[in-house]
Amino acid sequence: MNFLNFLVAGVSLGSIYAIIALGYTMVYGIAKMLNFAHGDVIMIGAYVAFFSINSQSLPPVVAVLLAMAICTLLGVMIEYLAYRPLRNATSLAVLITAIGVSFFLQNFALIRWGSSPKNFPTVVPFGKITLFGGDLIISGEAITTILTCLLVMVLLTTFTQKTKMGKAMRAVSEDKAAAQLMGINVNYTISITFAIGSALAAIAGVLLCSMYPLLNPTTGAMPGIKAFTAAVFGGIGSIPGAMIGGILLGIIEIFGKAYISNQLSDAIVFAVLIVVLLVKPTGLMGKKIRVKV
Amino acid sequence: MKMKKSRILALLLALSMCFALAACGGDKTPAPETNGDKAVLKLGFIGPLTGGAALYGESAKRGAEIAVDEINAMTDGKLTIEFNPQDDEHDSEKAVYAYQQLKDQGAQAVIGCVTTTPCLAVAPDANADRMFMLTPSATSPKVTEGRDNVYQICFSDPTMGNESAQFIKDKALASKVALIYNNADAYSQGIATAFKAKAAELGLQIVSETTFASDDEKDFTVQLQDAKTKGAELIFMPIYYNPASLIIKQAADMSYAPKFFGCDGMDGILGIEGFDKTLAEGVMLMTPFNADGQDDATKKFVESYKAKYNGEIPSQFAADGYDCVYAIYNAAMASGEDVSKMSAADFCELMIKTFSSDTFTFSGLTGENMTWSKTGEVAKNTTVFEIKGGVYAPM
Description:
Chain A is mainly α and 293 residues long.
C-alpha cells in the first residue's frame, strides 16, 4: 500500500511539474528561448491569489482568474521590455536576461510582501478520497492538479494544431523569417505565446501552493528548475513531452526518496535526466533535428 | 570575437574591483561618546532581517529594541544604550560583512548572530578582535567552543536534544518515536544526534528516522508514510517552523495524527500569516518563553511589544533579544565601571569576567537565575509548552 501512496504522491507532484513545464515548453517551442523567469511568475501569481482570497475575501475562482489576468499582463510586459529588444541577439544574452528578470521578480516580492511565509488557503472545493479503508488517501488538490494538467494539455494541443493562431505559432517556431514573409506578425505571435505561458504559470502557482501551502518569495524557484528539467526530459518544445516528463520526474523523485535515499532524491532526478539525454539527446518525445549539410 | 571576450572580461574585473573598493571604505573607528551626563554603551546586533529566516531576526531585533527603549527611558539610569542592528540575511558572508560594519561604527559588544550558520562565521573574527558576543539564539555548541568571549543565552543543541528525550520519557508521551530532521542544517542535526543518543540510553524506541535536505522541501509523504507504517505515536522534529507547518498539514491530509514534538525553531509557527491554528492543536515544543505567562515581567514585555508592533505577539526570539540586552546591561552595571569610555577589547574582558563569575546571575524572560559556564554555555531550567486553542499552555 505504501507503493500506491508513493505513486499518488509522485503523480500529483509530477503534475505540478508538468503544468509548469508546459509553460516552459510553449515559450521554448515557439520563441526558441528559455524563460527562466517562469518560476517567479508562478510565485507572483500565487501572491496575487493569496491576497485576493485573504485580504479582499474574493471567491477562489475570481482569485484564480485575477491571478491569471495579472500574470498574463506581467508575462507580456516582461517579453516586451526585456526580451523583445534582444530578438536578434545571441541566445546567451537572452538567457542571462531571463535570469536577471527572475532575480528582479524575487527581490520585488521580497520588498513588496516581506520574507515571512504566508500559509496559502486551498482553492480546491472538495476534500480527499479515502480508499482501502484509509490505507490509500488521494487529496482533492492532487486530483484537481492531475485533471487540470490533462485539460490544459488537451487545450494547448488543440489550440496549436487547429486554430489559425496556433498555425502561426507553429510557423514562427519552424522559421521566423519565412513566417514573416508569409505575412505572420512574429512579435504579436510571440506576445500571445508569453500571454498563454504566463496564464498557465498563474494556474500552476495556485495549484502548487494549494498542495504545499507555504508561500514565500522563493517558492517558485526550485519547482521552476525541476519543471525545466522535466521539459528537457520530455523533449523541450513538445507539449505531450512536457506532461510526460513532468509526471515521470515527480514519480522518480518520490520513489528515489522512498526506496533509495531521503538525501539523494534530487541527485537521482538529475542523474536520470543525464542518462536520458545521453541515450536520446532530444528528450523522450523530442523531434529529431535535421541539420542541413 | 576573442577581442570582444577579453574586453567583457576586463569590464567585469573592473566592476568587481569597484565593489571590492567600496567594501573597504569607511575604515575608521569613532571614539565612544557620552550623551549629556549619561554614559553611552554601543551595542551592535546581527540577525536575518530579510530572507527566509527573517521572522527570527526581526523578532530578536524588536525584542532587543524594547529593552533598549526601557533602559534609555529610565530616569535614574546611569547608562544609555545606542543600538545598531545589521542584517545578515541568514548568510555567512553577509554576516561577516555586517560584523565589519558594526566594528567600523564603534560597537563595543555584539548581540548575535540570531542563527547558527552566520554565527559560526562571525565568531572567529569576534574572538580574534576581542569583541564580546552574546547570541540570543544560535544554539550550536560550536559557536562557543574554544572561544572565551562568545556566550549563549539560549540552550545548546545537545542540551535541547537530551532534555527533549528525557521529557518524552518522563511524561510517557510515547513508546515509539519517529524522527524527522533536516540533514543539511547544523541546528537540526545537532539536536537529532543528541536526541538519538539519549533515546537509546533511556530505552526510548526510535522506529523511523528520516531526513530532508533543504528547508525548501515541499513533499514529506515519504517521511510521514514511513513513520505511519512503523506505528510511531510521536514525531520528534527538531526543525524550523516552515517545513514543520507543511509536515503537520500533510500528516492531517494523510489522516495520520501522531503527537508532534519540536524545539525552539518551531516557535513562530503560529505567526505564519493565514496558518490554520487548529492544525497545530496539541503540538508540543520546548521553548524557554511563553507570551501568555502571567508573571509581571512577561506581561509588561508583551504589552510594550504589542503596543509598538501593531498588536503582534512576541515569540521566544523576541524574548531572547530582550534578555540579551538586559544581561549585558546588568553585567555592565554590576561591574560599577564607566563602560562608555571603554574600547571593545576592554569591555570584552570586563564582560567575560562578569559573566563567568560565580556571583553573577541573571533572571529574564527566558529563565530564572541563569548562570554561565566558563565556556559560554548557559544553565537554566527547561520548559515545554503545548499548543492549546492557538496559544501556548505550559505542560
